[in-house]
């Protein structure tokens, strides 16, 4: 069965393997797309973390105690009973490997898993920087560089093309690659600086994600954060 590792949000009747008696600390901020990618992965796996709100805009990531955990001062970070890990892609892989009832969200098969890894590296190396360079200047009251906007459009076109032959970002079933992309794409859409509906396959996949992820928190996690960030962009762009 596709995605059988996914359990409904707050479903207390399903206890993922190895997860019975402890809670993972998640250093998180709602406006941060990689933070939301990790939280929705946790919800998909049936994990209810202990959320520690960590706001980079308020300087929380630069506090000495946080820097001891994560010298790169980024969110998200997890602390799983002393095992500290940062970078959303690494965290999502760890969570599926450690707590997934199966490997559907990050396949162990080398070729299928490599497709997921490639998408995660694309998010980290291209999509997230493209989002950052085109949206943060606007939040700061400036305009983004045309070359950066073009790079983001190229990334959107690339994903649209991927989805011509693939139902999900990394193959025919949902994986953490979809979580990594949807948290950014929904934020780009909510911010209104780029027309996501211009990319037909990406737009169709976006609607598919809303449906498929609704049972484990699409609205509450992915959309709520996207709208919070989008509201900030729209206010600054006024
Ligand atoms: N590749 C990292 C990126 C994390 C990242 O840059 N997070 C931003 C918020 S979205 C942050 O923490 N910025 C604060 C800082 O860099 O000090 C990941 O996926 O976790």
Structure report:
By secondary structure, the chain is an alpha+beta fold. It folds into two domains: 25-99, Glutaredoxin; 110-237, Glutathione S-transferase Yfyf (Class Pi), Chain A, domain 2. The protein is 53% helix and 7% strand. The chain has helices at 33-45, 64-69, 88-99, 110-139, 146-162, 176-191, 200-212, 218-237; strands at 25-28, 50-53, 77-80, 83-86. The chain has a four-stranded mixed sheet with strand order 2-1-3-4, covered by helices on one side. Strand 3 and strand 4 form a beta hairpin. Glutathione binds next to helix 1 and helix 3. Residues 109-238 form the GST C-terminal domain. One of its GO terms (molecular function) is glutathione transferase activity. Residues 22-103 form the GST N-terminal domain.
User: How would the global form be characterised?
Assistant: globular
> Percent of residues in beta strands?
5-15%
Biggest β-sheet description? 4 strands, mixed
Molecules bound to protein: glutathione
GO molecular function, one term: glutathione transferase activity
Domain GST C-terminal: 109-238
Pfam families: GST_C, GST_N_2
InterPro entries: Glutathione-S-Trfase_C-like, Glutathione-S-Trfase_C_sf, Glutathione_S-Trfase, Glutathione_S-Trfase_N, GST_C, Thioredoxin-like_sf
């Amino acid at each position: 069965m596709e995605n059988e590792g996914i359990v409904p949000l707050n479903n207390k009747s399903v206890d993922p393997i190895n997860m019975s008696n402890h809670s993972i600390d998640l250093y998180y901020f709602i406006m941060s797309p990689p933070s939301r990618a990790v939280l929705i992965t946790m919800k998909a796996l049936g994990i209810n973390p202990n959320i520690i709100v960590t706001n980079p805009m308020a300087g929380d990531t630069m506090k000495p105690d946080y820097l001891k955990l994560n010298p790169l001062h980024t969110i998200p970070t997890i602390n799983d009973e002393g095992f500290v890990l940062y970078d959303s892609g690494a965290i999502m892989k760890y969570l599926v490997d450690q707590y997934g009832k199966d490997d559907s969200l990050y396949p162990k098969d080398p070729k299928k898993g490599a497709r997921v890894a490639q998408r995660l590296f694309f998010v980290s190396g291209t999509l997230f920087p493209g989002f950052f360079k085109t949206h943060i200047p606007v939040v700061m009251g400036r305009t983004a560089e045309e070359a950066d906007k073009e790079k983001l459009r190229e990334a959107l076109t690339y994903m649209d093309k991927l989805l011509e032959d693939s139902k999900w970002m990394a193959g025919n079933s949902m994986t953490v690659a979809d979580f990594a992309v949807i948290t950014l794409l929904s934020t780009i859409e909510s911010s209104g600086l780029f027309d996501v509906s211009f990319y037909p396959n990406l737009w169709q996949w976006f609607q598919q994600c809303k449906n498929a992820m609704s049972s484990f928190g699409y609205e509450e996690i992915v959309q709520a954060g996207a709208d919070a960030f989008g509201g900030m962009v729209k206010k600054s762009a006024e």
